[in-house]
Amino acid sequence: QRNRMRGTFDMGRIIDLLPNDPENVLMGAWETDGVMALHRVNINTGSATRIERGGAGTWTWYTVDGVPVLREDYNSTGSMRSILVRAPGETEWRLVRRSPVRDTREFEWVGSGGTPGKVLVISRYDTEDVQSVREMDLTTTALGPPLNPRAGQDVMGGLTDSAGNYLGAAYYGERLEYEFAEPALVPHHRALNRFFDNSCDVAFTDVDQARNRFIAYVNGPNEPGAWFFYDKDARAIVNLGQARELDPVRLGAGERLQVPTRDGATIEAYLTAPPGGAPGPLVVLPHGGPEVRDYASWDRQVQVLAAQGWWVLRPNFRGSGGYGQAFAQQGWTRWGTLMQDDVEDAVAHAIALKGLNPSKVGIMGTSYGGYAALMGAVKRPDLYKAAIGICGLYDLPDVLAQVERDDDLNDKPYYQRWVRRMGDRATMGPALEAASPRRRAAEVSCPILLVHGVDDPIAPLMQSRRMRDALRSARKTVELIEIEDFGHADWEDAQEQELMTRYVALFRRAFA
């Protein structure tokens, strides 16, 4: 409820700028009964007219020429996400997809696309390896062929102009890259990259219909982010404003590593040096998901840790997203084994490469990263001197049982999806228990800090409470911080600052 009130107070959710109607915009706002409604708001007078009332769990709409055609809903607990579609002229919404929030988002809106009766979305057929931008027919919901696909890389997003016309697809290689549908845009993005020393992600956020004026958001490992205006004809670049007022000289530089694994594979990892780059302790940050990935871009948590004189490592272990389904599937049913081995191999590689102190290594993560942090403390008590788990999952059989209870469809498709990824309790019971930090709390030797939002809809708070209880029963050093009125690590700045102070203090004691 508090999160909902924060959103209402901000009133910043513009759904459609209505480029052909300069007097008005479409905005979403909560009504007194807690239902989201869509309003046409006059930007001069502030007067608003309701044009659409959502369902009980509606969060937002996506529009074509001011007409809502896609809607995003959530269930009462915030644990399930539904996508509904309605073609222009229709009156009823139809369900396209329903999936748990804890799943990777495999269906995303891109834009109207300019083709009547169709819109642009990001999606993937089950038989395909990568996610791509493609057209979706609003009447049949059929998907067209991929637009500008890349082998072995999931698309990050689609690029459209101010009218919704498709311009290209964004991917992540050495940094943010585009496969442009209009070749004339290629040299301009390349020139902007050169302007920023080929060291930042240059993401187009707005493009005019004449393809002459661009807004770009630029950030990098030690560039905290800024918006720039680029005029192609005038060859002018103007800094519109900084996202954060920080001195880049005081920030740590980052690099991409190619990490050899113990079984002969290669994974990517990002290593951030402390300012000055002197050898020192290492903090490992496994990402969440697990089917998401880390990037070379700006990360506040990374820079806070680097500012303490510590190196920070973020490995994209097998099972991560972004590299195609085949790469993600290598982590299926291998929680705590191959996925954990990849994290350890990245640690060993970074230590050897930079001459870091192997006796001063800590691990910390959120969601799946919290699981990996605690599993690291279980499997490598000789390596990790402290571990921090934030909104994590620590008992895999319990997680699967919870997903099964939450899946209210007859054939339990979402439970089956997690069985494929995590394992089947009926056939893999002992392996799942062995991959559960709560079941192996006695093997932990380092101090543990657990943090969890009380209202977390993705990773139940009970996971952290039971992990704490197991560690206490084993006479281990553990603290659990419960954050009232917040969910899955969705802290405000004040909470984030207080928590980072606690994280730094724990690692500082461990590295002393």
Q: By helix and strand content, what is the structural category?
A: alpha+beta
Portion in helices: 10-25%
CATH homolog superfamily of the domain at 252-395 and 436-511:
Alpha/Beta hydrolase fold, catalytic domain
Determine and state the CATH class of the domain at 252-395 and 436-511.
Alpha Beta
Gyration radius from CA atoms, angstroms: 24 Å
- The percent range for strand residues is 25-35%
Major sheet: size, sense and barrel closure? 8 strands, mixed
CATH architecture of the domain at 252-395 and 436-511: 3-Layer(aba) Sandwich
Q: Taking all residues together, what is the mean pLDDT?
A: 91
Tertiary shape: globular
Number of strands: 26
Low-pLDDT ranges: 4-8
Strand order of the largest sheet: 19-20-22-21-23-24-25-26
**Distance, first to last CA:** 42 Å
User: If you consult CATH, what is the topology of the domain at 252-395 and 436-511?
Assistant: Rossmann fold
Contiguous helical run count: 11
Description:
The chain has 512 residues and is of the alpha+beta class. Among the domains are: 1-96; 252-395 and 436-511, Rossmann fold (3-Layer(aba) Sandwich), CATH 3.40.50. It is 24% helix and 32% strand. The protein contains eleven helices and 26 strands. It has helices spanning 2-10, 186-195, 300-306, 325-329, 338-354, 368-379, 396-406, 413-422, 425-434, 461-473, 493-511, and strands at 14-16, 24-30, 36-42, 48-53, 58-64, 67-74, 80-85, 94-100, 108-111, 118-123, 132-137, 157-160, 166-172, 176-180, 201-207, 213-220, 223-231, 236-242, 254-260, 266-272, 282-284, 311-316, 361-366, 384-390, 448-453, 478-483. The strands form six sheets. The protein has an eight-stranded mixed beta sheet, sandwiched between helices. Helix 3 links the parallel strand 21 (282-284) and strand 22 (311-316). Helix 7 packs antiparallel against helix 8 (413-422). The longest helix is centred in the C-terminal third of the chain and has 19 residues, at 493-511. It is globular and about 65 Å long.
